Amino acid sequence: MVLSTIFMVIANTLSKEQFELSPMLGVLELIFARGVISIVMLLCWVNKNAKTELIDKIEASSLPALIFRCVSGGIV
């Protein structure tokens, strides 16, 4: 949890710096840039242990709640 917070702070800081360098950048471009930076940092963190980090650590008891959250987030 702390690590994801740190990554989001870094991504947010980098996207704000990018916005200051080019003030004509729109809001959607800024959000897209923040997402891309977050994905790149996540891929660097996960690296070769993707299955272990993303799939094996999910407990079977929390799977229905996770599926519901994904579906409701995709709909809204």
Model description:
With 76 residues, the protein is mainly α. The chain has four helices and no strands.
Features of the shown structure:
mainly alpha; 4 helices
Topology readout:
Blueprint: H1 2-21, H2 27-46, H3 50-56, H4 63-75
Report strand %.
Answer: under 5%
User: What class would the helix/strand composition place it in?
Assistant: mainly alpha
Low-confidence stretches: none
SSE series: HHHH
Brief overview:
The chain is mostly helical. 79% of the residues lie in helices and 0% in strands. It is built from four helices and no strands.
